[in-house]
Amino acid sequence: MDIPEGEYSLIYYTDQDPRFDVWGQVSVIDTLVIEAGQGTGTQSSSIDIPTMPYVDDWNAGEEADYSVAPDNYEHAKGAKIWLIPSEDINGGQMTMWNPENYLFETDLALYVDCDSEPICLEYVYPLFNTNVLLPGETYCWISTYHAAFDIMQGQYVVNTYLDAEEIEP
Q1: CB count, 10 Å around CB of 60?
Q2: pTM score above 0.85
Q3: How far is residue 13 from each of residues 28, 63, 118, 121, 165, measured CA to CA in Å?
Q4: Environment class of residue 102 by beta-carbon count within 10 Å: exposed (0-12), middle (13-18) or buried (19+)?
Q5: How does pLDDT run across 22-46, given as a tens digit for each residue?
Q6: What residues does each domain of the chain span?
Q7: Residue 67 to residue 27: CA distance in whole angstroms
Q8: CA of 162: how far to CAs of 19, 25, 132, 133, 134, in Å?
Q9: Torsion 68-133-121-151 (CA) sign
Q10: Fewest C-beta in 10 Å: which of 1, 29, 86, 130?
């Protein structure tokens, strides 16, 4: 696909319920400019983005399921990340729908901002297999513990162990 010149926005598209009746919210992650005659563009920056998908995103809810046709994604729930012409959005909202000019995700994404308190996405986290650790990779590990409120006062220690047999050297 040849990309026409202009300004493009890398966005996180948040679906609303009911889908397709109302255009979803748009969060701009970054922008880049495609120059005439090049058809490609690069942008390098560092920005602080929150955990995605957001709690109020329809794509993170119980009803969402993108694992079936026509999408057939590996992950049934998650964040939609698109690259679209910047002129198609205004004030955090889609203002035009020109899908022939968009680069869509090929699967839904999960991003956890480890610098802040993790949010609970009960329908999303189980879909992203995080029980296989690869050597040399960095992981943001979220552990959840449930404790009874009627336990005796005092200091308690909770230990988490990784099964060394599952980690390949």
Answers
A1: 24
A2: no
A3: 9, 17, 20, 17, 40
A4: middle
A5: 777 899 988 888 776 655 555 655 6
A6: 1-169
A7: 24
A8: 41, 39, 10, 10, 13
A9: positive
A10: 1
